């Protein structure tokens, strides 16, 4: 299974690629078209013009823009005593390395070399002639020393101006003047299928150039809630991190950041941060040294086919609200668990991942409108966007009486949840699931130890509430169940009558 990799630097593998000349390609195409009636018909349907006319020549672009692309090397000082491998060594060896340096993985020590320092390589690009350089947070964010190497082989010490881990961006500065700068374009104008080119230092090979096309826009990746990534098939490898992605006009449209790989190297899936988002971050870092984002205060999930049916939607769409944080902007606007947000500020929400990006792009205090589906009806709510806190997973504060119950038509046994149990999972109300047998609940994924917060849109405050709602459920169809597991709320669709 593939994993997302931040593009830093391991071992090198070399390969050779050979290709045919463009003249021969064109001759082959003309020959093939002459002998292919379908190809001739296709040309006729398009007014006799080919939709794709040949491969681009990147030489002028590279000559003009490459001088503004830099290599970045960093050193992070590390206390050897914190290295778990040091703890495994005998006391005498630990004392030796403490006194004379080295250690596991360090120069002079077992498996490596230097005094516990960690070194890494990445890329970046100059955005102003007075020395501002843009790169990835994961390249420089934790570094103690940053060195920028220019194409003319000058090496300049850099300092961190500011960083934004949420978007994986960092702004650094070197003391210099009259530096070459890149041309900044617009990622909004980028089209799927368009040619793009990357310049960077994969595996430490300076000023390497690779090209490909835009595979998709607005991609969501795990744990990156605020970046609508540009997906490309440009070859990106460790060391390319922080380097620019150019369009054919020679404008930067993205910042190469991540790959999906089983091996740690390029496998055809590369992701870049849109330059429009990046330059907004740059402006905030220059002005304030930090980045402010909009915030609603909700926990959301994707709507699948079963949940869409249970909430009365024609098709899977929108962002399903699983939890609303007390005192948050969403709570003040009247948003509830079980609402499906289908539009935000006039933009339709097809997938839940779109909502955090659109909210995050707004400044705190901005007035916005949300369209939600509640109990099968559409409602419009007005919300004043708040500022994303340092820890957005804030606590939900705030049981009923009753003893254990036997398994029912859903296959569940429940009992009253104590205030301590509700507090531990950060739920305001609910019943504790004590057993799961064959039935709709087990098939939906409910487990023993879950707190069942609501069923079919009704809050559960006691086992009595639960039994009444179960008796009123239809014989067939899908009904939503809100479950809190370990402090995380999530809706599951229970399919009845199967």
Number of helices: 13
Low-confidence stretches at least 5 residues in length (pLDDT < 50)? 10-44, 99-114, 393-406
Shape: elongated
Coarse structural class? alpha+beta
The proportion of strand residues reads: 25-35%
Strand runs, count:
28
**Cα-atom radius of gyration:** 28 Å
Query: Could you estimate the helical fraction of the residues in percent?
Result: 10-25%
Characterize the largest beta sheet: strand count, sense, and whether it forms a barrel. 6 strands, antiparallel, barrel
Q: Kindly report the spatial arrangement of strands forming the biggest sheet.
A: 9-10-11-14-13-12
> Span from first to last CA?
32 Å
Mean pLDDT: 81
Secondary structure layout:
Layout: E1 3-6, H1 22-34, H2 37-45, H3 59-65, E2 69-76, H4 84-87, H5 91-100, E3 118-126, E4 132-135, H6 137-140, E5 145-149, E6 155-164, E7 169-174, E8 183-184, E9 195-200, E10 208-221, E11 224-232, E12 244-246, E13 251-261, E14 270-274, H7 275-288, E15 294-295, E16 298-302, H8 305-310, E17 319-324, H9 329-333, E18 340-344, E19 347-348, H10 354-360, E20 367-374, E21 377-384, E22 386-387, E23 412-416, H11 419-424, E24 431-436, H12 440-444, E25 451-455, E26 458-459, H13 463-472, E27 477-485, E28 488-496
Parallel strand pairs: 8-13
Antiparallel strand pairs: 1-13, 2-3, 2-5, 3-4, 4-7, 5-6, 6-7, 9-10, 9-12, 10-11, 11-14, 12-13, 13-14, 15-22, 16-17, 17-18, 18-19, 18-20, 20-21, 23-24, 24-25, 25-26, 25-27, 27-28
């Amino acid at each position: 299974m593939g994993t997302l990799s931040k593009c830093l630097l391991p071992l090198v593998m070399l390969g050779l690629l050979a290709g045919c000349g463009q003249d021969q390609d064109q001759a082959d195409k003309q020959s093939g078209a002459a002998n292919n009636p379908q190809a001739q018909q296709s040309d006729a349907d398009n007014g006799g013009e080919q939709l794709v006319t040949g491969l681009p020549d990147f030489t002028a672009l590279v000559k003009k823009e490459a001088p503004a692309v830099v290599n970045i090397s960093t050193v992070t000082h590390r206390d050897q005593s914190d290295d778990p491998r040091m703890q495994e060594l005998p006391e005498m060896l630990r004392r030796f390395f403490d006194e004379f340096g080295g250690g596991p993985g360090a120069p002079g020590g077992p498996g490596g070399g230097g005094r516990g320092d960690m070194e890494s390589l990445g890329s970046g690009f100059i955005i102003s002639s007075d020395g501002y350089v843009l790169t990835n947070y994961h390249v420089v964010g934790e570094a103690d020393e940053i060195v920028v190497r220019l194409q003319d082989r000058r090496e300049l010490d850099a300092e961190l101006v500011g960083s934004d881990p949420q978007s994986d961006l960092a702004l650094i500065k070197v003391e210099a003047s009259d530096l070459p700068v890149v041309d900044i374009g617009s990622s909004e104008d980028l089209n799927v299928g368009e040619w793009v080119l990357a310049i960077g230092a994969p595996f430490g090979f300076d000023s390497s150039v690779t090209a490909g096309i835009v595979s998709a826009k607005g991609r969501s990746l795990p744990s990156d809630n605020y970046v609508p990534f540009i997906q490309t098939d440009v070859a990106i490898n460790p060391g390319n991190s922080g380097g620019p992605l150019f369009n054919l006009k020679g404008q930067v449209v993205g910042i190469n950041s991540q790959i999906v790989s089983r091996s740690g190297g390029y496998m055809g899936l590369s992701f870049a941060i849109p330059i429009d988002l990046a330059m907004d971050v740059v402006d905030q870092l220059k002005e304030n040294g930090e980045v402010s984002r909009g915030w609603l205060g909700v926990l959301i999930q994707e709507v699948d086919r079963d949940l869409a049916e249970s909430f009365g939607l024609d098709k899977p769409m929108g962002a399903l609200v699983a939890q609303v944080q007390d005192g948050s902007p969403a709570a003040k606007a009247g948003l509830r668990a079980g609402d499906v947000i289908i539009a935000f500020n006039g933009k339709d929400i097809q997938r839940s991942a779109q909502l955090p990006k659109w909210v995050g792009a707004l400044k705190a205090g901005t007035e916005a409108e949300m369209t939600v589906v509640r109990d099968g009806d559409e409602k419009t709510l007005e919300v004043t966007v708040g500022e994303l806190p340092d820890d957005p997973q804030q606590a939900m504060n705030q049981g009923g009486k009753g003893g254990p119950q036997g398994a029912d038509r859903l296959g569940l046994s429940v009992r009253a949840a104590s205030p301590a149990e509700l507090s531990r999972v950060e739920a305001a109300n609910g019943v504790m699931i004590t057993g799961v047998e064959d039935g709709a609940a087990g098939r939906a994924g409910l487990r023993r130890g879950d707190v069942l917060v609501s069923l079919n849109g009704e809050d559960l405050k006691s086992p009595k509430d639960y039994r009444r709602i179960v008796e009123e459920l239809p014989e067939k169809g899908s009904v939503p169940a809100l479950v809190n597991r370990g402090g995380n709320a999530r809706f599951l669709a229970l399919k009845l009558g199967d």
